[in-house]
Amino acid sequence: MITLFSTLLVILIVAGGFVAVFSKKLLSSVISMGLVSLGVSGLFFFLQAPDVAITEAAIGAGLSTAIFIIAMKKIQKGGTNDDE
Amino acid sequence: MIDFLQNWIYLTGAMALVGIGLYIVLTNTNIFRIIVGLNIIDSGTNLFIVTIAWHPKSVMPIYTATNNLVVNGHVISADPLPQSLVLTAIVIGLGTTALALAIAVKIYQKYGTLDVRKIKEEDK
Amino acid sequence: MMSDTPEVVKKVFAIFVVGILIIGFFMAFTQMPKGNAVNVNDTVSRFYIMKDVDQATQMLDKGTYFNKDMVPLRNDVPYTPITFGKSSNLEDGAANVVTSIVVDYRGFDTLGEVTVLFLAASGVMLVLHGEKRKVPKKKTAPSEIMYVGTRIAFSVILLFGIYVFIHGHLTPGGGFPGGAIIASGILGLFLGRQGYSPNKAGLTVFESLSGMAYVIIGITGLVAEKSFLANFLPTGTIGDLFSAGFIALIYIAIGMKVGSELSAVTNAMIVDTEED
């Protein structure tokens, strides 16, 4: 039973990785990177490591994706306030 | 089949993630995509280290009212030492990604493009 | 040279490199019996679980550690198993074994990690230095639901983050995820209103005081027991709130430091865009 769940999660992770490789837009790659982090966090729970699962869920799937999208918004607006 | 899956599925997932991340880094020219690839390699390495600390009949390494870590003189919990190393590595991965993104934003403001080949030509 | 080769050659070369890596890995791993079956009784980790690291040090000094027929448990005193709520005055009375390794047995490595995180945050704020734009661009404002909802959610998120890092020695969690949860709450406040900026002086003071608190606790251990970062508080019964020495104090310092640091990094990356 547990082996079945773990196999489904690993298939989800590898599928997310392939979406990150073969997508045309940059936003799809970033969202699938967040999906990979979420799947790895669930996998850490089945590997009997709850500390690591909480840390990866809070940092990988939360803050890392958010900082990526904030940086992407700075690119599209075309510069900031230094006027260099 | 169940036996083979139970023993090898986690290692296969970790190595597949490292392979996918390495392929992304080697064949892309956009700086942001290269940083996505580096982050996927990070996740794959952490999964590999936590897999080494596991055996198929283990329990969590936390003492609670119903959880016994030592049974009949043998220790049956998962190995707690690699888990503490991974706890440190995840936070440092976040710091590295944030710094790389800040530098990438400044490169775009100076050169006007995100293509690695064009930046290399303009810098000569 | 590398910019003239066609795309197909680059992709085939990349697939070749990745294939060699994966094949080499699996060839190395067929030496292990049955995939992954670690035996914790043979490694040093069982001394961390049974909380007698002193015996491991004595065995290393005497040279009996690397014998092939190492006895599983100590046989000079009858072994009393560690039970939740009854065992007291252990070497390190935390119920969470991973936490006791990170803060008590390997506390110096955690001090190094806090330093690396501080360097990365300073680097980000140094690179993205600049002044606020005087004339803001016109953008659509967030709706009322976002404004009220994020402020209500922030109080609950802050309380949950403080709970996670205070109970680090009893439940899974600790200082690092607690700080990240608080930073996520502040990120929600940024999304609720245009032009929100936290109190920068307050964040700086919080971060500096927490970092100094960690080193001051270490120096107190040096004065009290002649060793930097030694556990100088009494370890009570396993499972109580006031147990495990100074682990709760250090996690409070780490949680506040990580939370304010990540909030300052997010502030530096958002505010310089034209959203103010």
Characteristic terms for this protein:
heterotrimer, B: 124 residues, Helix Hairpins, two-stranded antiparallel ribbon, C: extended
Description:
The complex is a heterotrimer of chains A (84), B (124) and C (276). Chain A has one domain (2-76). Chain A is built from three helices and no strands. Chain A has helices spanning 2-21, 26-46, 50-77. The radius of gyration of chain A is 16 Å and the shape is flat. Chain B is mainly alpha-helical and 124 residues long. Helices cover 69% and strands 3% of the residues of chain B. In chain B, a hairpin with a 2-residue loop joins strand 1 and strand 2 (74-75). In chain B, helix 1 runs antiparallel to helix 2 (31-52) and helix 2 (31-52) runs antiparallel to helix 3. Chain B is elongated, with a radius of gyration of 21 Å. Helices cover 58% and strands 0% of the residues of chain C. The model of chain C has no long low-confidence stretch (mean pLDDT 84). Chain C has nine helices and no strands. In chain C, helix 6 packs antiparallel against helix 7 (175-192) and helix 7 runs parallel beside helix 9. By secondary structure, chain C is mainly α. Chains in contact: A-B, A-C, B-C. The interface between B and C is large, with 56 and 63 residues.
Distance between the termini of chain A: 60 Å
Fraction of residues in helix of chain B:
55-70%
Shape of chain A: flat
Distance between the termini of chain B: 57 Å
Number of domains of chain B: 1
Output the CATH class name of chain B.
Answer: Mainly Alpha
Provide a count of the helices of chain B: 4
Compute the average pLDDT of chain B.
89
Portion of residues in beta strands of chain A equals under 5%
The pair of chains with the biggest contact is: B-C, 56 and 63 residues
Total number of β-strand segments of chain A? 0
Oligomer: heterotrimer
Using the CA coordinates, give the radius of gyration of chain B: 21 Å
List the helices and strands and how they pair.
The complex is a heterotrimer of chains A (84), B (124) and C (276).
Chain A: H1 2-21, H2 26-46, H3 50-77
Chain B: H1 2-26, H2 31-52, E1 70-71, E2 74-75, H3 80-111, H4 116-122
Antiparallel strand pairs in B: 1-2
Helix pairs in contact in B: 1-2, 2-3
Chain C: H1 7-29, H2 45-49, H3 53-62, H4 97-105, H5 107-127, H6 144-166, H7 175-192, H8 200-225, H9 247-271
